[in-house]
Write a structure and sequence with these properties.
One of its GO terms (molecular function) is 5-(carboxyamino)imidazole ribonucleotide mutase activity. Substrate binds at residues 19, 22, 49. Its EC number is 5.4.99.18. This protein is an alpha/beta fold. It has a single domain (13-151), classed as Rossmann fold (3-Layer(aba) Sandwich). It has helices at residues 23-35, 51-60, 79-85, 104-111, 126-141, 145-160, and strands spanning 13-17, 40-44, 68-74, 91-96, 120-121. Strands 2-1-3-4-5 form a 5-stranded parallel beta sheet, sandwiched between helices. α1 runs parallel beside α5 (126-141), α2 (51-60) packs across α3 (79-85) and α5 (126-141) crosses α6 (145-160). The radius of gyration is 17 Å and the shape is globular. 38% of the residues are buried. The chain binds 5-O-phosphono-beta-D-ribofuranose (RP5). 5-O-phosphono-beta-D-ribofuranose is lined by residues 17-19, 21-22, 46, 48, 73-75, 96.
Length: 168
């Protein structure tokens, strides 16, 4: 009798964003997770344009097997906070750099959550997205020694790549 096929591992990290226009920023989170061998599920979920989709996603996220949610949005960036209101999973919020206010609006919309509904808020823009990916991996690594080693190796390589002195 044939061995039963091993089911593919479902992604434990969801990366959601308010718009297609957020993808150039949010792909940094997906890229660093990919470098660390962590699969992610990437979706467009808007608090304002697709509120029903947001509610459905947030309420189902834990049951769907996700362990961490990275949510990025710009402007009136309610997406991370609204998702955090509907799930007990850790939510990492990335303020996308808006055209009008350079992401200051996004940052303030995400960071100042009321006590009891946390969003781990990252820096504005690509650095924030990269660090959200690294933090998501670090959260998963607390229960995954192989991933923990890959994360430590990744960081060591980054340190080793820093020159002692600047080029003249
Ligand atoms: C937010 O509005 C999105 O997260 C995006 O950052 C911003 C602008 O969206 P688009 O008008 O480019 O679709 O909902």
């Amino acid at each position: 009798m044939a061995e039963p096929a091993t089911p593919p591992t479902a992604p434990k990290v969801a990366i959601v964003m308010g718009s297609q226009s957020d993808w150039p920023t949010m792909q940094r989170a997906a890229q660093v997770l990919d470098e660390l061998g962590v699969a992610s599920d990437v979706r467009i979920v808007s608090a304002h344009r697709t509120p029903d989709r947001m509610v459905d996603f947030a309420k189902a996220a834990a049951g769907d097997g996700f362990h961490v949610i990275i949510a990025g949005a710009g402007g009136a960036a309610h997406l991370p906070g609204m998702i955090a209101a509907m799930t007990h999973l850790p939510v990492l919020g990335v303020p996308v750099q808006s055209k009008a206010l350079s992401g200051q609006d996004s940052l303030l919309s995400i960071v100042q959550m009321p006590a009891g509904v946390p969003v781990g808020t990252l820096a504005i823009g690509e650095a924030g997205a990269t660090n959200a990916g690294l933090l998501a991996a670090a959260i998963l690594a607390t229960n995954d020694s192989d991933l923990s080693q890959r994360l430590q190796d990744w960081r060591s390589a980054r340190s080793a790549a820093v020159a002692d002195r600047p080029d003249a």
